[in-house]
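User: what does the whole thing look like in 3D?
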Amino acid sequence: MFSRKKQLRSRELLKFNINHRLNLLYVALFVPRLLYFILRILRPFYERKENWLNKTWRYGFLTIGGGVMHPAEMRAYRAGIKAVIDNFKTALAAERNNEPLAWVEWILNAEIIEAFDIASFNTESLNIFGNTMGSEYPPALIAEAESQGVPVENCSAVKLSVGSYFLKQIPEPTLIIAASHPCDSSISVYQILEYLTGVPTFSYDAPYWKDATSYEYFTMNTWDLIDFLEKQLDKKIDWEKLREVLERVNEINFYLREVCEMNRAVPCPGTMISLALTWVIREVAVRSPLAVSMAKGVYEATKYRFDKGVGVVKNERVRVLMWFPPIGFFTYIFKWMEHEFGAVVVADFIGHISTIHINTETPETMVHDLSRSQLHLGMGRQCHGPVEFIVDELEKMLEDYSADCVFFMGHNGCKHGWAALKIIKDFLKKKGMPALYLNLDIMDKRHTSEQEIKKEITDFFRSHGWA
Amino acid sequence: MNERNDTSHMKILEKIAGIAASERNDYLMQAKKSGKKVIGFFCSYVPEEIIHAAGFIPYRMRAVASSGTEKGDIYFSSLNCTFVRHCFDKALKGDFDFLDGIVFLNGCDHTRRLYDNWRHADIPPEFRYMFVAPHKVGTTAEKRFSGEIEVFKKELERYFNVTISDETLAASIKLYNRRRELLQSIYEAGKSKEVPLRGSEFLRLMLALTAMPVEDSIALLEEFKGEIQGRSTARPGDLRIFLASGCVEEPGHLELIEELGASIVANNICLGTRNFDLAVSEDDEPVPSLAKRYLYHLSCPRMMNTSRERLAYMQDTCREFQVDAIIAEKLKFCDLWGGELFLYRKESRKLGIPLLALERELYGGSSGQMRTRIQAFYEQVRNRKSTADDLFCAAGDDYQAGGKN
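Assistant: Here's the predicted 3D structure for the full assembly of 872 residues, as C-alpha cells:
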C-alpha cells in the first residue's frame, strides 16, 4: 500500500478522471469500432491482471468491455462518460466559485437538486471512478477512513466517502442529503460526515413497509426536503425544471425497463454491465440529458440483438441471477463470465428497473411519484424492510428470467444481508436452484481479490458441468 | 450507616440481583399464573404503555443467562452482533416460552432481521409484530409515529380481543411516569460524592424492573429508594465514569469497570437513561403524547438527525455528574455505535475529557484483556489529574489519556 497522504494531491482522483482517463475514453469512443479493435489487440497486456504498466487504464478498458463488447454498446457509454465528466467539472467549479454544492447520498438520485439549479455530487463516486487511476486507490481511501476511526465493519461504499473527505479528494459541500436506507452503515457514516463538514444535513427516512401509509410518509419527506432546500438556498423550487428532468427520467426508465424485459429472452440479448453502468450514471448524473442518450443507446444495442433473436454471447450456456450488489472493483466480471463460460447474468439486484412512471402534471403528482420512484431504486427497494422484499423479488426473477443458478454476492458490510442468508439459502434449496455464496467486499479488493473471485466462480461452474 | 440499614439494603440488592440474573422471575411467573399475558419487546422505542393498557405485561427482551450462540449461529452470521445471536439462540432453546406475544422494532439491521428469522424458524409465540419507529425527529416523523402507535394499539385489540380505552391508557401513562420519576431520582443521586448506587447495581435494577409488572416495579423502587438513602459506595480515589453504549446487559462487566477503581455515575445505554428520560405528557391526548415522548427521548445512534443533541447530552452530563472519564462501548459489528464512537472520540478530545473506546462481544469473556485496557486507561486518567498542565503538555500528545483513541 502506498503512502496515501504523500501521493494524493487535492482532488487528484477527480481531476485525473476529468483531464485524463474519462476524457480519453470519451474521445476514443467517437470511433467505437476502432477502439474495439485496439482493445482486442491490446487485450493480452491488460486482461489477466493489473501491473505497473497497465494500472491506469486497465479498469477503464475492462469496464467498456475489454475488447469483447459490441461497439454499439460502447458507443452508448460515450454519453454516460460525458455526463460524469460534466458532473465532476460542475461540482469542482461550484467549490472553486463558492457556489452551493449538495452532496447526495448514493441511494438517492438528484432530480430535486436540478429544480434548484445548483451543483450536486454523489459522495460515493470514487468507489467506481477511483479505480481508473489504479485499483489500489479505493482501498487507500477506505484505509484512511479506518485509520481515522471509522469502524472497519462499516460498509466500504460509504466508508470510502469519509476517506475521500479526509484526503481532500471530493469537493466540500454546502449541504448534504442523506438517507436512512439501505442499511445502518449509511445512517452511521452520514452522521459522521455531517459532524466533520458541519453543513446543514437533510435526512430522508425510509419507511419499513411498502404500503400507502409508507409511501405517504416518504412523500412527506420529499416535501420536507423541498422546504429545507428553499430555506437553505433562499430560493423557490422551479417546478418547470423539475418537470423537465422528470420527463427525462421517465425516458431513462422506459428504455431500461425495455432492456430488462428483453433480457428475459433466451438467449439473453443484453449484457448486465450495461444496466449496472446505467445505474452508476443515474447515481452520478441523472440530471444530465446525456443520461437519456446512454439509456437509449443501450436499449438500441439490445433491441438490435433481440430482433435478430441472437444473444449477447454466441453460445449461451448458463443464465445467472446475481443477488446483492455487484463488485465495484471488478466490473469486468460480467463480460469475463460471458467470454470465458458463455455465462450471462440475466438480472441482478441493482440493474433491474422497477421504478414507476412519474406523472408530471402537477407539483403534487411529481413529488408523489418521484418519492415512490426513489424508494424503488436498485438496493433501496429490497433493503429497507422485511426479508420478503429480497426473497419475493428473487422468486419473481427466477421465474421471469429462466435462470440456471444464483450468485449471492455476500458483501462484508451488508449485515442485514448476512442475517437473511439462512432464509435465502433455504428458499433456493427448496427451489432446487444451484447457488454460489460469495464472501467479499464489493469495493475493497483487500478482502477478496479479483483472482479469488474468478477462481470461486470457475470452480462453481466446473462442479456443475458448465465449464 | 447503621447495621440494620446495611443488612436491609443488602437484602434488597440481592433480591434484585436474583431477578436480574434470569430471563424469568417470581413476579412475572406469578402474574402469568394469574392469567396475565406477557408481551416481549425489543428496544426503548416501543411504547410500553400501550401493552400495559391492554392488560398485559411488557417484557424487555434480553440475553441474560445465555449459554451460547450455537443455535442462533445457524440463522445469523458471525458478522451479526452477539446480542441478536444470543437472543435468538435462547428463543430456539425455548427460554422465552412464557411469552404470549413479541414486538420487534426496526432498531438496527441486526434486530430487524430477528423479526424475519423468528418467523422463518416459526418460534412461538404466534403474535409477532413489527413496530416501526422513524429514524429522525421532526413534525413529519412525529405524525407518522403517532399513526404507528394507533395501528399497534388496534392490532393488540384485534388479536387479543381486548379494548384499550383512553382512560386505561392514561392510567398506564401515569404508572410509567411514576416509574420514570423514581428512576430519575435514584439516577440523579449519582451526582453526589457518596454515589449511593453503583453503575452495576443500577443495571441490575433496570434488568429487574423491565421484566416484571410495572405495579410491582414501582413498589420495589419505592422500597429501594428508601433503603439506599444515605448509602455511600464511593471509595477514596474512585474515578467517576460516564458509560455510553447500546445493549449492555452484563452487570459483571460493569462490576469489572468499577472494581478497578471507579464508579459509573452516569450513562447513555438502552437499559439506562434512555429508558426513563423524559416523561409522557398527562395533559394531552395519550397517543400523540406517547409519540412525542418516545420520539424525543434521549436518542440512540439509529436516529439520524439528533447526533448534536446526543453529544450535547454527553457534555452536559459530564459537567453535572462531575465525570472524570468516559467509557464508550460497542458490540462487534454494530455499525450504529461504531459511528457514535467516532463522534464521541472527536468530541471528547475537543472537550478534553479522556475517553476509552471498547469493542467487545456480549457474554464474550475476555475479561483479562478488558481489565488490562481499563487499568491502563485509569492510570492515564489519574496521572493526568495529578500532573500539572505544563508538565503534562511537555510529555507530548500521546501522553493524553484518551487522546489517541
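In plain terms: The domain at 240-463 of chain A is CATH 3.40.50.11900 (Rossmann fold). The first strand of chain A starts at residue 101 and ends at 104.
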